[in-house]
Amino acid sequence: MIQTPYLLFLGDAPDQLAAKVAQGIKDWRPDNAVGQYRMEGCMADVGLTDMTLAEAKEAGAKTLVIGVANRGGIISPEWKKVLVMALEEGFDLASGLHNLLRDEPDLVAVAEATGRALHDVRVPDVKYPIASGERRTGKRCLAVGTDCSVGKMYTALAMDAEMKARGMKSNFAATGQTGILITGKGVPLDAVIADFMAGSIEWLTPDNDPDHWDMIEGQGSLFHVSYSGVTMALIHGGQPDALVLCHEPTREHMRGLPGYKLPTLEAVRDMALELARVANPACKVIGISVNTQHMSEEDALSYMAEVESRMGLPTVDPFRQDAGRLVDALAAI
Amino acid sequence: MIQTPYLLFLGDAPDQLAAKVAQGIKDWRPDNAVGQYRMEGCMADVGLTDMTLAEAKEAGAKTLVIGVANRGGIISPEWKKVLVMALEEGFDLASGLHNLLRDEPDLVAVAEATGRALHDVRVPDVKYPIASGERRTGKRCLAVGTDCSVGKMYTALAMDAEMKARGMKSNFAATGQTGILITGKGVPLDAVIADFMAGSIEWLTPDNDPDHWDMIEGQGSLFHVSYSGVTMALIHGGQPDALVLCHEPTREHMRGLPGYKLPTLEAVRDMALELARVANPACKVIGISVNTQHMSEEDALSYMAEVESRMGLPTVDPFRQDAGRLVDALAAI
């Protein structure tokens, strides 16, 4: 559990896209961030107040979150200076970088001397159980995709936000680095040991009120041969009552796999539903979330109308439109 | 890669079943073991010559393999004495116990001083890649089960033995502790990090001769909610050309999951085949292996005849009968 609120470190981001973790925190959990810290030459701006470490501390920030991708996979000397100063000023550090904070001896030494925590959210810090398969109280919704990176996290976050706005009981259950940094907690599922994958999702979404929804962030795809085991563990560990299908219609092949075509929405629906019903016989597919960012307004709307009529399910782009109709469908269960 | 041949350590096994790892090595790779080492009170005997450490060394043994389950999950002081002596005598140690050899400071110190290796086959010692999904040359067969512990390893080993006897090119590809100790190499899949599961199976079964078969040891079941992600990774990382369905007909519920009924053979066939065809469109189900150990001869034969006629696939118990008909089916692909 990472202490909030954060100061978002944008470093020397070469462009706006490099700061997408910080942007995600600002978009989805604005209360979690007091401001942003930018170094000289930073080309990103997530629209928060620029602050020094001292100003952020004064504003109550507890953790400096690295909200930017590092260049070349290393933590540069320039970054290091700021990170060390932050520890000295009393900040914890949190990062989703492949280059772990804990692998930097100087950061470890300063963190120890100052009594601060280094959070590497790529590495599990919990000993997860093996999944028991026992039914849990409360409800769960899982986003499943035709492919990786088609908008599963965005969909779950957008639905969670809409549910909270309606006064429904909802929680976004993060299963990836960005999601964990956004909410301050979660399971870095891709780094969990095989035997404990499904158990980690049971742990993440425990018994809850009968009308409480865990909106579980999906990962991978049942049809993506590199990561399908992770998706499977989400379906069986999550015991979802509801599935939302996520799709990006302009994708020409599976992400990173040039020889693999995307499955149809029908194939994902049938496969995911049959597998989900092993753990929860009442599971339903409640809607379809389409990532239409690479389509014109006209193409997007006509594509979604066609899918909606073909599949008989509410079909929306929660970014272009909103997640209201998906939440309507969930509320109707 | 564990150095062969072995001396099999049976310790103070309370009964024959406790020595099933040693029995597996003796049954499937008799050339891998020069003899057995039994302590006072040992109630197991795998039928090899009893040897002292010195005699085994003289006979060429390179590794002392712990072929017995430990009591209470700890390596006892009595065992320790033998293990330390073995290191001093120049043996490597290999173990599939949960209690790792490397977590015992005295064993680590003696191994270092003597320059010997400690092999904990529960822990991967390779940095596996992320699966690429690229087609590999050679052929692969995967055993998939209705449940855990229904005879998948036995089936793959029996088919591999039959293929070798026929002069076919075959390799048993171990994916669990016992299989790894039997063959001296493999992937401890349940201990692999989620992102690398499918990649570890690609690594285990690389390009090979067009007429070479990797007989891949299955794990878990697509319908076992605790371990289904592991099974999925085998199906997509293994790219099998052939599947053998494995089943134990007297099982009343999924292993360790009292609330979960076993799936039908038809459900496993359809689900496994659709998923396998994502990675290998030519994949076929070639036969059914039934574990009839808890059935009378008459019941077993009539059950298998019924399944064979219903499923239209050769159906055998490779222990009660042999794996010949399964290999016939494989050879016909």
UniProtKB/TrEMBL annotation, chains A, B:
Q: According to the lineage, what is the superkingdom?
A: Bacteria
Alphabetized Gene3D superfamilies for the sequence: NAD(P)-binding Rossmann-like Domain, P-loop containing nucleotide triphosphate hydrolases
Q: Which SUPFAM superfamilies match?
A: P-loop containing nucleoside triphosphate hydrolases
Which InterPro entries does this chain map to?
DgcN-like, DgcN-like_C, DgcN-like_N, P-loop_NTPase
In this chain the D-glutamate N-acetyltransferase-like N-terminal domain maps to 40-124
Name the PANTHER family on file: DUF1611 DOMAIN-CONTAINING PROTEIN (PTHR40690:SF1), GLL3100 PROTEIN (PTHR40690)
Annotated Pfam families: DUF1611, DUF1611_N
Q: Which residues form the D-glutamate N-acetyltransferase-like C-terminal domain?
A: 130-327
This one is known as DUF1611 domain-containing protein
